[in-house]
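Troubleshooting: if your tokenizer reports a length mismatch, compare against these two reference records.
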Amino acid sequence: MNAAPRRHRSVGLIVCAAVVLGGCASVSDDAQNSSLAALATQVPAPKDYHPPKPEKTRSCDRLFHSAVPSTGRMPAGSYMEEIRKRGKLIVGVDQNTLRLGYFDPSDKAMEGLDIDLLRAVARAIFGRSKDRIVFKAISTAQRESVIESGEVDIVASAFSITCDRLQNMYFSSVYYLAQQKLLVLEDSTDDTLSDLRGKEVCATKSSTSIKNLAGTGVVPHPVELRPDCLVELQEGNVAAITADDSILFGFKQQDRQTKIVGRCINVERYGMAINRRHPEFVRFVNGVLKRLGPAGLERIRRRWLGGLTAPTGDEISQCDHRSALRRAAARRRPQPVSP
């Protein structure tokens, strides 16, 4: 897209900091859908939200939750005890996502939905002592590598649970349901992926959002950092951004001359990622989430994303169904033959 730059505007530095231990029989989309549907986990939800009933094939509460021990009394030999003795919880977060994980320069502090959850984990280990978290800034593409290498203890960065990722790491219980949507300029008439065929659409590298553009006819425009997409849209280099609505909500607050449009493209189930060497830490984190409960998770959601309407159970089911049909159609579509 070669439109003239719409305007130049600096984008402030912003920051981002589960379903679960169960593996997938395969990494196919069908396996992913059936695996995720089988996980009986709670998600943050307002009173009018009714999540789809899970298949009764696995009890995550029984298998993957444990009681949270008293602060300072972590089980001997556990990873939580190792963290407690070290004195710091090392977390991987994205530095570029308003409302999910953001460095507020005025307060000189991290804030956001993901950050609140990480602080709840830290409090469960250390009590209410301050400065017990070390934040390591990572990009979308770095989320998996820092977990696999052990560089961080946990990643919270709008990290969607997928079968591919479950092969290499564990995830906590699902703590938030996002919907992949589109962000366009306020004067744009584009409303769906069909409207954007042949046009460039921005998304971050290694994200589920950019993968979900396969077979849609749009031209993917990959970038390293989430705010890069907002700059590209403002400069007229792309026709739209696609990302989770929780991410787009922050972009819209940064640029009031944009709007979120279209139906849900894909449902994204957020979890906190943990190295596979530490299943007891996953159970501990799930215990923290369970102790927060739906009411606690909903309070956190409303604090940071209160202006974003939570999806209903029917909307989630319909979006999952449309996503499966779109992926199936993409697989059937003939691939170009190399000369």
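Reference record two:
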Amino acid sequence: MAILRDATPADAPGIADLIRDLAESMGEASTITPAYVKTYLAFPGCNILLAEEHEQITGLLSYSIRPNLYHNGETALIEELIVKSAWRDQGVGGTLLEALLARLKRSGCVEVSVTTLPENQGAIRFYRSHGLVDEAVYLEKHL
């Protein structure tokens, strides 16, 4: 069973490696650095929940919490949910997500959202299986 814990700045190299590995598996390159991971962790409301086995990071879930005017409370955005390829289909992602949902509920967060690419049907099925529903269209522009 995975141990879950909040990331610290000392975890930055492992987190950066995991994000680079994900990008490579999709034919992309990531410019993430351990220094930027530390900047992310220092930013108010930005958090990373880690899964570990034998002191090795097996997965991560990064998320941010912010106030929301419409909902009159805090909302959360899941940014990345990554599981190392050797640990996929073993419940690591579900454990991370369920732990986050429980944490958010205890803290009084009123909504959690996530985005994924329309063709990522596996991720869509995964999030739906954990109670997330289609609610909005997400638009973006890279600057």
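Descriptive notes for reference record two:
- The mean pLDDT is 94.
- The chain has four helices and five strands.
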